[in-house]
Write a sequence for this structure.
């Protein structure tokens, strides 16, 4: 479900409503802070757009992004 | 699943971990603020204890508590 | 501090760290759901980018966006 | 401000409203999960009651609780 797009690991999540979408973002936020690696995340109502890339590696995908993607998949 | 205990509407929720428990609390928080009626909520790791009662009705159960309980049941 | 950009009401918020940024997003989320009008919000580490516009008015700025902007200003 | 009460490290926080209280709980939640040590936290409208103790040390106060208390003090 994750796609590589312009050197970012990208996935779009759709939920039934805003509350469910923001609840997912809260799980992502806690997980990201724990892993000390944070996504670029955007929310529009029931949709959450995640872009994973490593700023300190020139905004490209690294092993840290792949690990974060796996951890996020556990949160759905 | 909700029980009446000492004039409170009470329910205990158990989740697989802390992140899931807090994510549920976030959904409850948004819902409660929207309904302008807030639960007494306690969290210990993966457990969430909710007590619903109406402060302005002498800490007893009112229709507002029953409506909040129904709304919370939709969030699980 | 809010600017009009391409028919969106836009403001960027910068915080000391991710936890502070996400905590602000939580306040925005609760407020938005209460007002039944939601922002387009993006988070990159300690920054939060908010775009306010009304989807049902052709993605342009309406009175609802101005009211949401005022409510968000109270949350900082 | 923290007090020892019945082998718990206890502190009560009061905020201007529910949104501010829950926003603080979100910061505490992220911090706690990061430190892998979680508080017993209760929320009633604008108040947050934190009890820190170590379950695996017989529900008494340990160094982990003192470290968590210090980290929480940074979040206010």
């Amino acid at each position: 479900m994750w796609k590589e797009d312009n050197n970012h690991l990208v996935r779009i999540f759709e939920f039934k409503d805003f509350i469910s979408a923001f609840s997912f973002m809260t799980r992502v936020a806690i997980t990201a802070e724990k892993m000390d690696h944070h996504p670029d995340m955007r929310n529009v109502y029931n949709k959450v757009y995640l872009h994973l890339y490593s700023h300190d590696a020139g905004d490209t995908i690294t092993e840290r992004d792949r690990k974060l993607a796996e951890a996020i998949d556990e949160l759905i």
